[in-house]
Amino acid sequence: xxxxxxxxxxxxxxxxxxxxxxxxxxxxxxxxxxxxxxxxxxxxxxxxxxxxxxxxxxxxxxxxxxxxxxxxxxxxxxxxxxxxxxxxxxxxxxxxxxxxxxxxxxxxxxxxxxxxxxxxxxxxxxxxxxxxxxxxxxxxxxxxxxxxxxxxxxxxxxxxxxxxxxxxxxxxxxxxxxxxxxxxxxxxxxxxxxxxxxxxxxxxxxxxxxxxxxxxxxxxxxxxxxxxxxxxxxxxxxxxxxxxxxxxxxxxxxxxxxxxxxxxxxxxxxxxxxxxxxxxxxxxxxxxxxxxxxxxxxxxxxxxxxxxxxxx
Length: 312
Fold this sequence. Notes:
The protein is mostly helical. The chain is built from 13 helices and four strands. The protein has a domain of about 170 residues: Creatininase (Rossmann fold, 3-Layer(aba) Sandwich).
């Protein structure tokens, strides 16, 4: 091959290999903003550095389930992780999300819900904690971000304490005594059924993940339930603990249980409540979030005084 012919062959190949820097570096997705102490964003040296200051981890236990017509499927996961991040930044502890889905069989009548068996959920979290213990973390704050995971969270905490060298607490339970009622929280009246996907979750979402809330798509649900549960509602709203326990033992359960209380059987939108979600506000969400984060940080500070990092 002559030098001229070789040059004619190489020039097109070279042109194909040259990619404008902007085209190779620009993504259609929005930029990721790094959050300190958030495990998915951290490098190995950053994890090692955090271990010199703290042996504590906040682990949200969440769900991937329908939240009506206006909130994202990932509401529980996203809000739980955002609260955990705020705690991690304030208290200088690791934040380690493990799973998106949890136990949500009663929402399977609506598209998008992903549910896992309770035994599988707790097994994954316990095994993940064992990995973190291997690297030097010792104390675990399990943050339940989905009401249906309450029993699972209790079991995860107990298994960590009984089966590993780690020490675990249910963050929601231990933060309770440190919680100060937010004086700035707007009053909500009258008292009516307002639970899953209602004004509370919508307010939290308006504060924590506002870009994902479609409030224009929200409207009040048509809600019905078995007559004996309907008869309990006034006592539940009045704060009767026995009525609440019995109400929740039957309410919002998988269709295959035959109780007639899955979300699709009780609600036209998937929201379990009669209040219009459009009554929610970011201000209420801010007040609720700050009250919980303040309480969680206060407990962490107390735990650090009772058992300084590196003890034992």
